[in-house]
Specification:
The structure is a homodimer.
Chain A: E1 3-11, E2 19-28, E3 34-38, E4 50-61, E5 63-69, H1 84-97, H2 102-118, E6 121-127, H3 132-145, E7 148-152, E8 154-155, H4 168-181, E9 189-191, E10 194-195, H5 203-216, E11 220-224, H6 228-237, H7 244-250, E12 259-263, H8 269-278, E13 281-284, H9 286-291, H10 299-304, E14 309-311, H11 323-340, H12 349-361, E15 378-381, H13 393-403, E16 409-414, E17 417-418
Helix pairs in contact in A: 2-3, 4-5, 7-8, 11-12
């Protein structure tokens, strides 16, 4: 049903500034997509459409999380005392092994999806585990919630506990089942090919993943150049590749279908060039990069080079599921680069917001803006207890991003439907 | 009245580990101080004392914020686009000038004190503004709330708008009024001598501040080595001093009375040696140091050298008033140092917690621990919605610190009284 939403509207068409309409209107069609944004009711047309009145509140695009591990939700906010490789071995793999128990999976995944909704994230690129049935449950939970997700059954067959190892045939069979069950390209929930990362996957597994992505036209997600020890290990494991990114590329996992790579803290110029060529998106996970002591990704460089960037919470390397908080961390990381090198200007608020909305959203379709034809993925922010009368609309948004939380998010929409 | 509190008790005597008593008891005397902590009721004595039952919840020392600007509360979470010196000029000084209006001061300070209470901070070392009457209001608000604070009427007489400049005589007169009105050394609210920082104070003002601290036996707070441009400016302004810290020392403002210095991002070995000699406390403000693009303070080095460290939210350079969040940032900063230099181990959770409680608390007396004779400053944490049954007590605390918020703080005590 056609609807018109009245509120203070803020979004980013371009990175470098906000579009701001005080007391404006967004018209949303039967298909859940934005028809038009306007400053006055009359110019919208649709005289009979229902007007939903959020006068005084902020209406912004919903958050998109382009890198998060649903199966690590139980470890959120604990186990913060190791770097990546030992952290995986000691904390993460033992936790993921529990997801062989489908009831356990259902329990943790329910908490995860509910929390994701709470913090205003309407689309996510998600790692599950190697377990097909658990992954299926997670996909169902997203479908039932009416939220958008690209969900990856994880592929891995080396350097991990036996209980998490599948053969290539088992892995392919599980991925094909899910690809067949969720084959509608218009569905909000879809599978994504998810080799964990090169250290966890034999060449045969990586090859099978690349072939599967190509055969089913599926997107790809993985990890790239997160930690120096990890990068060194990839150079040893794939001596013929020109680098970590090139290793993925050789297996058909680096832009041959839409690809998002988490972290890219240590990507060098050659790797960034390959990303640009393949239109590979960076999932910038600044919180996680702090917590796992990986480093600080030079996001200004990626943006300057025209590489796509979205934001990821990366639970449980990251501790905070909120993409609003992730924006703050992204700006802070960029300020540490700027502090050392004033030729790298730090991120504007509008740039961080753009990454969280239109930047990351582009991985899910026309998502993350209120431009015509975009899915109406939106949040209504009630900041009455943040003294809105004292601030401009842009300051109200900034203040909410920096100091607000899920209590201020009073309505959530995904493709036009309230979630 | 004597009281006994029953709960899961966690605190830090030493930096490197938690004291944890599952389902234990804290006995608090008529004077609001801890008499004893025990694992069972009988060994406490006091058979007739009331037992307040917080079974299942966490009982921890309250937070101490050793650096925060009450008068910048209106700018919390906005104006994040400049480095220190232009930021002061464009955003901070114009805001502080508004505090000549005492009604405005009352309004903003009320919000500030209420928010501080909400996030579980029971003691704070606070900057007000140059305005004596506004500062008096802030002190009264703390007194009325039953919270502890060292409140500084700011001294400054150069490099700032005319409206914020006082003569040395005016400044001294205002500080003396407040020192006289709050002269009881046992009072929870006391004045603190607060030269803003060397770039804002003439030598005459700095000298007067040092003499005042000595005459009234008052503690001192200021800023030190926050930003490279600021440090360079101090070297120009005080060419005879051996450095920034030494300049304060020459005016009697660096350990001659108890002293806390905010930031210390760029303190060199000589400055740290002076801090050690004067027992000067670092107010580590990692959030602010990110936001204002100052840098990352090497806290491991300060701890290794035996220098006292507490945590500061530094609103509005910092955006988050919660010292729990500040702990997370402190650990993250230490991980970035560790990433570059593995000889600087990152902070343990217990070390961050110690800085937030016993470390910072030591600036306010015997505060920040549940050892005998300490003021009973405490928080009761109800983490039932964080799935406590799945975690150990230390993990529950860690998870609350990383992912919880003020909703989980259900009781607050300052020196034995519920706030």
């Amino acid at each position: 049903m056609k609807k018109i939403y009245r509120a203070n509207i803020l979004y980013t068409k371009q990175k470098d500034c906000f579009e701001i309409i005080e007391d404006g209107y967004v018209a949303v069609g039967d298909d859940g997509r934005v028809c038009r944004v306007a400053a006055d009711r009359d110019s919208l047309g649709w005289p009979d459409a229902e007007v939903v009145d959020y006068t005084g509140k902020l209406l912004i695009p919903a958050m998109n999380d382009v890198h998060v591990h649903a199966a690590q939700y139980h470890n959120q906010g604990i186990a913060m005392d190791m770097e990546l490789l030992p952290w995986l071995e000691h904390y993460t793999f033992p936790e993921e092994a529990k997801f062989a128990d489908t009831d356990y999976a259902e329990r943790i995944y329910s908490r995860f999806v509910s929390h994701l909704r709470r913090v205003g994230t309407m689309r996510a690129a998600v790692f599950a585990t190697v377990h097909t049935e658990g992954t299926r449950r997670l996909m169902r939970l997203f479908s039932e919630a009416g939220m958008g997700a690209l969900v990856g059954k994880v592929a891995m067959d080396r350097n991990c506990p036996d209980s998490l190892i599948e053969t290539v045939d088992e892995a392919v069979s599980g991925m094909e089942q899910l690809a067949t069950e969720y084959s509608d390209p218009q569905s909000l929930v879809r599978p994504i090919v998810t080799p964990r990362f090169i250290p966890s996957c034999t060449p045969a597994m990586l090859k099978a993943c690349g072939e599967l992505a190509s055969r089913y036209g599926l997107p790809v997600q993985s990890h790239l150049s997160e930690n120096l020890a990890e990068v060194a290990s990839v150079h040893q494991l794939e001596p013929d590749a020109l680098g970590y990114g090139d290793a993925y590329r050789r297996y058909g996992l680096f832009g041959q279908t839409p690809t998002v790579m988490a972290h890219c803290v240590w990507s060098d110029a050659a790797e960034r060039r390959l990303m640009k060529e393949g239109d590979v998106m960076v999932a910038h996970c600044p919180t996680s990069n702090f917590n796992v002591a990986s480093g600080m990704a030079p996001i200004r460089t990626f943006l300057d080079e025209g590489i796509r960037v979205g934001l990821g919470s990366d639970i449980s390397g990251g501790h905070d599921l909120s993409i609003f908080r992730t924006m703050v961390y992204a700006i802070q990381v960029s300020k540490m680069h700027y502090q050392r090198n004033h030729d790298m200007p730090f991120l504007l608020l509008s740039e961080a917001f753009w990454m969280a909305t239109k930047g990351g959203g582009s991985f899910f379709g026309r998502v993350g803006s209120f431009e015509e034809g975009y899915d109406f993925d939106a949040l209504v922010i009630d900041d009455h207890d943040l003294y809105p009368e004292d601030y401009t609309l842009e300051q109200r948004l900034e203040r909410f991003i920096y100091t607000g939380d899920d209590r201020h998010i009073v309505h959530r929409f995904c493709r036009g439907k309230e979630v």
